[in-house]
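Structure tokens please, single chain.
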Amino acid sequence: GVDYFDFYLLHNLSETSYDLYTDEDLGMVEYLLKQKRAGRIRHLGFSAHARPETIERFLAWKDCFAFAQIQLNYLDWKLQDAGHKYEILTEHGIPVVVMEPVRGGRLASLNPGADAMLRALRPQDSIASWAFRYLMSLPNVAVILSGMTTLEQLKDNLETCSDGTPLTSDEKDVLERAASTLYNAVPCTACRYCCEACPQHLDIPKLISFHNEIKAGNPGTLRFTIGAMDPDSLPTACIACGACVPLCPQGIQIPDVMRQCAEEIVKLI
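Here you go.
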């Protein structure tokens, strides 16, 4: 055994675990703080797949954490609103530990168009190295976790991180363009004009983000969020009245997207 833990995580803050972790009668966080005061935990943190507003609410309840672990990469910066999560943690002075830096390997092998964009700038670099350099360009990233399966991947990561060269502004622009080709995203800008006309009071931008997330091939964490939502707030509640369509600056056929998203969610859960 050991006398203390250097770093101890409260596991998986999410919409479904929030009430459990903040239950004052159970006192889970208070127990961990007691262990910290006793010297058994040096640094107390939490991991989260929660949405930004849940993380903000959690920190408003008890802002006592030394670090936080979130899924963060250049695709999820917008797709899972990871950029917003990063900004919240930064504002609270909480260093970020990154999980899924290459999104389960998805960002190590791109489609031909995206691959060509990156190799045109740095032909000698691996595609995976772009994901790590992106994260190393973020000042509040303290640790990047990487699940490596081959010696070659280990060597490549060591070379990338030993060099530590951040992305240039041109490289950031190219990487953003490459990321936009990785999923067939509905081009919602979250202006929310559609919400004003919806008789079902649906949060249409949020539901479209679910659709984009599923299309990008990483729907797993959505199960937590969707499972905690009122059925009346899901895309299955859309009555396809079409009142939203003429209000959309992007010309999105929203009822069609809601229908697709409803079908995807049924399969997901």
